[in-house]
Amino acid sequence: MNIIVCIKQVPDTTNVKINPETNTLIREGISSIINPFDMYAIEEGLRLKEKFGGKVTVISLGPPQAIKALKEAIALGADDAIQLSDRAFAGSDSWATAYALALAIKKLGEFNIILCGKQAIDGDTGQVGPGLASQLGITQLTYVFKIIRLDPEAGDLTVEKLLEEGREVVEAKLPALLTVVKDINQPRSTSLFHIRRASKLIIPTWTAADLPGADLSKLGLKGSPTQVIKIFSPPKHEGVLELIKADSAEESAAILADKIITEKVL
Fold this sequence. Notes:
It is built from six helices and 13 strands.
């Protein structure tokens, strides 16, 4: 099986800085990690490889320092990695990101399954995975928390996915793209030996010029139909603890309901 896992490097902090001109994150000088939800995608890819054979290729679009995330994925057990990094990609929204990833995956060749985390913790849109599936014209299965059955020879699979209320079992044909939730597995850790070995690897970096058929007008900030008008941190409010004294649970509930209505909490 050829398994592709899309990952993203995200800031490891809540104290982020914003570029006032582009309304995008300033990533320089901030420690970064693999997007936590993508760790579950990596783990699921490794488990599929262990069960069916084949290889796992991780791919990421981001600044040069995102190479660290790809090397960490290699240390965990991925076989290959590709970095997409170019000034032409800067400021990409979810659509432009999906467009670039789709071009890169087409260049890689045939694949059976693509795995993504359900969303990134910095943008929280959850749109890159579905957008990528749309760009590639393949089946998309979102919020998957269990792969019930997968048959590479027959070219189909059955998954269980989370809905807003309940669960759903879905059968689909391969190739397919799955976005996974944290309930799907428990990500493994790696050893210092594998980390050191991965750190010495040379990860290929593809620019826009390396993507066959790339339309520069669809890349980066100028190719992003979604524009962030303003981004800011919400004001901090000091919490106040108030104990309700009453003679019965019913009286306490009535007082609480009155306060909720008065303070317009709901």
